[in-house]
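Case study: Trigger factor.
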Amino acid sequence: MNITRNTTDNLSAVISITLAKADYQEKVDNVLNQYRKTASIKGFRKGQVPMSFVKKQYGDAVVFDTVNELLQKSVTEYINEEKLSILGNPIPVIKDAIDWNAEELTFDFEIGLAPEFDVDLSKIEVESLKVAVADEEVQKYVDNFSQRFGSLKSLEAAEEGAILKVDQAVNGEEAKASFIRIEDLKDASAFIGKKVGDIVEVNSKDIYDTAEEATQNLGTEVSEEGVNISITIKEINTVAKAEVNQELFDKVYGEGAVDSEEAFRNKIKEESENMYNKEADKQIINDVVAALLENTSFELPKEFLTKWLTFSNEQITSEEQAAEELAKMEKSLRYQLIEAKIAEVNNVEVNAEEVKEAAVVAIKEQLKMYGQTSIPEESMNQIIAGALSNQEEYNRLSYQVFTDKMLAIFKENVKLNEKEVTFDEFVEIITKKNEELAEA
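Here is what the predicted structure looks like once written out:
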């Protein structure tokens, strides 16, 4: 076997592979011998079919499969050994006719080469938002926790904030048990002051904003005209907020994690700022990416990529269509190359242990959202193992670890202009930036 590479221009080349019969004939003979043992041809006993018959019937197909397998393996090994950075995949050059009985066979593969370029992060300058959480914002969280960990309290009559257990009959059909939250209704006036046992007759349009909302709450299809509902009140409750004391602190953060209201509020403030600043970090990444795309220039092997898209994608039926598709993906492709270059220069790698650690953090945060702050180690290990066994979830966590490492590199090398903002200002800035990104 002989492999050569001819560069056609700076960003494309042709790999030529010449195979002698000796490179593949032994494997072809072995396959044909297996066929001979099992072939069933009229006039011959099984296993006694002459090899000439077997070669006539299966020879060309076996040579084709064997050669094709050898070519794919050889091209891949050559690219790896030569440390070629390619875009897309090698494209076989189609030949009009191939003499499979020739002593030598030569095949060509076109490849697109990744461009050479440098990335200078020190020239990038972006804004870094720092969110300062006000006392009013902290109080909203305190109220939310008090509500979430509160207890049900019976009421004599329905009032604002009440939760009603009811039986609902739609257009005279059999009543179905459900719950109604007064605060969720479009107009709750028909319920205010009602007591257990009272029946409220309304049209769905009176209490629900849309037909879709009515359908979801009633469990039956509702048109825009609405339906008549007969609602029998079975229970009237409200949520009595939990007191802001040690019992609430323990429920929110785990036993003994905080020991005073001041520490509780400080913990909320710290976590809130961390959460908002994580969003600010995402914006740093977005801004750095935009700046890198604007400031890092290099050519792409567009002619090759257009041909590769046409060859590899059955949905693309012309070079014009492929060119349009390439234009759509060019920005993403350029950043992938820039990102790969930064990762290579900074030796960024992600290992299984780091992915596991990320899974632990993500699962604990998710469980905490549901008030579960203390999970037995065995149960936690099972949850973690389940998450890591899901390939899609593993890939997501792996990319998150990679992104965190890239963010650290950006923060260390890019010029960050810190700007302290309120939560409302932060939302306004991020919303505007996202709208600009969507329009780009």
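For the exam, be able to explain this: The longest strand covers residues 228-240.
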